[in-house]
Amino acid sequence: MRWMHMLRRMYGGERIFYPVLEGTIRDKILEAIEEHNVMKSLLQQMDDLPKDDERWTAKLKVMEENMRHHIREEEGGIFKVASMNFNMEQLDDMGRRFEEAKESLRP
Ligand SMILES: [Fe+2]
Questions:
Q1: SS3 for 88?
Q2: HEC readout, 29-76
Q3: CA pair distance 59, 30, nearest whole angstrom
Q4: 14: CA distance to ligand 1 center in Å?
Q5: pLDDT tens for each residue of 37-85
Q6: What's the gap in Å between 29 CA and the centre of ligand 1?
Q7: Would the pTM count as exceeding 0.85?
């Protein structure tokens, strides 16, 4: 399911990438964590609503907007900083641990 993929991606980011970048761009990392919290909360709320409820659709739209903004900031800022602060070997290692963290959340 698409949402499970999103949750795994957020979990992996928080476990692997965010802690090592906190010292460099703490404000951006804190902001990203709050964006994750908003998305997790919306997913939870949507889970409790029938899909034909108009509030479900409203929540989906807000989540998609938040997600687009979040991904832009991650790719344009957070991951760019990571690529400048770590060498290829370190980035490969983080990438591998990110995949492992994501997998560990699989039901
Ligand atoms: Fe994220």
A1: helix
A2: HHHHHHHHHHHHHHHHHHHCCCCCCHHHHHHHHHHHHHHHHHHHHHHH
A3: 23
A4: 8
A5: 999 999 999 999 999 999 999 999 999 999 999 999 998 888 888 889 9
A6: 9
A7: yes
**pLDDT of 16 higher than 90:** yes
- What is the distance between the alpha carbons of residues 36 and 21, in angstroms, rounded to a whole number? 16
Q: What CA dihedral angle connects 95, 21, 13 and 72, to 10 degrees?
A: -100
Tell me how far the alpha carbon of residue 57 lies from the centroid of ligand 1, in angstroms: 22
Task: Please tell me the distance from the alpha carbon of residue 73 to that of residue 47, in angstroms, as a whole number.
Answer: 27
How many A from CA of 53 to the centre of ligand 1?
27
Report CA(94)–ligand 1 centroid distance (Å). 15
Cα 70 to ligand 1 centre (Å):
6
